[in-house]
Amino acid sequence: MQRYFIETAIENARISGEDARHIERVMRMKQGDQIIVVAQNIAHICKITGFEGDEVAIDATGETIPSSELPIQITVACGLPKGDKLELITQKATELGMFALLPFEAERSIVKWDKKKGAKKQERLQKIAKEAAEQAHRTHIPAVYEPVTFKQLLQDIDQFDAVFIADEEDAKAEKRTRFADKLKLVHEKKLTSILIIFGPEGGISRKEAEALLQAGAQTMSLGPRILRAETAPLYALSAISYEFE
């Protein structure tokens, strides 16, 4: 069944806008067809009761579907990458269970966030996250935040139970602390939120890494190979999913 998100309670809910047009014109659904509607992070099986203008009227059947969310909230902070890599990260990380995306202006970021076009770009990224959440049958759409400065990122890390940084210098070391071992400790302590930080092309600078470590972050080893800026977050989320799910 198709899945749609609404921002209101399920009682007397209606679907409007692009989702309503998708139901009627793309999926060509009819009255009596069933869809999944996610309201307040709960997936409800609903029946279409009618089409009224640009809205679709629905009625909850009382049946719900178990959540497929990760048991721990993972926020991904990534240094602004080049091209459309941020879109790729948004889409694939949403599919893998990311809770939120926090881009930041890293020392090695070549791309600069255009404040004039930033709102539209953020809106597009949020739409990508919504569509990926529907496709992956999630009950939460990750928030995609406006990029922050590195200083702001540093100030925000105390909001999380654990913070890990992907540092390519760690990958080059002969002795590395396995990320799996650190995740086991997180699991045992029953922590509820993790921030994982990745640099742009070229990685996190030594100055940034030292500042993060001093603020309480830990390094995470993603193996002996150097991963691309858009690959590393997906690798880490996969490892977290394996450990927790």
Provide a short characterization of the protein structure.
The chain has 245 residues and is an alpha/beta fold.
Q: Any overview of this molecule?
A:
By secondary structure, the protein is an alpha/beta fold. It has two domains: 1-63, Ribosomal Protein L25, Chain P (Beta Barrel), CATH 2.40.240; 71-242, 3-Layer(aba) Sandwich (Alpha/beta knot). The protein has helices at residues 17-26, 85-95, 115-135, 150-156, 168-172, 179-189, 206-214, 232-244; strands spanning 3-6, 14-16, 34-39, 42-52, 55-65, 73-79, 100-105, 143-144, 148-149, 162-166, 193-198, 218-220. The strands form two sheets. Strands 6, 7, 8, 9, 10, 11 and 12 form a seven-stranded parallel sheet that branches. A five-stranded mixed sheet has the order 1-3-4-5-2. β7, α3 and β8 form a beta-alpha-beta unit. The chain is elongated, with a radius of gyration of 20 Å.
**What is the total number of structural domains?**
2
The major pleated sheet works out as: 7 strands, parallel
Number of helices: 8
**C-alpha-based Rg, rounded:** 20 Å
Task: Compute the number of strand runs.
Answer: 12
State the helicity in percent bands: 25-40%
Overall geometry comes to elongated
Q: How would you name the CATH homologous superfamily of the largest domain?
A: SPOUT methyltransferase, trefoil knot domain
CATH topology (level 3) name of the largest domain: Alpha/beta knot
Measured by DSSP, the beta-strand proportion falls in 25-35%
Low-confidence stretches: none
What would you call the structural class? alpha/beta
Whole-number mean pLDDT: 92
Element string (H = helix, E = strand) = EEHEEEEHEHEEHEHHEHEH
CATH class of the largest domain: Alpha Beta
Give the CATH architecture of the largest domain. Answer: 3-Layer(aba) Sandwich
How far apart the termini lie comes to 24 Å
EC number: 2.1.1.193
Domain Ribosomal RNA small subunit methyltransferase E methyltransferase: 69-241
GO molecular function: rRNA (uridine-N3-)-methyltransferase activity
GO cellular component, one term: cytoplasm
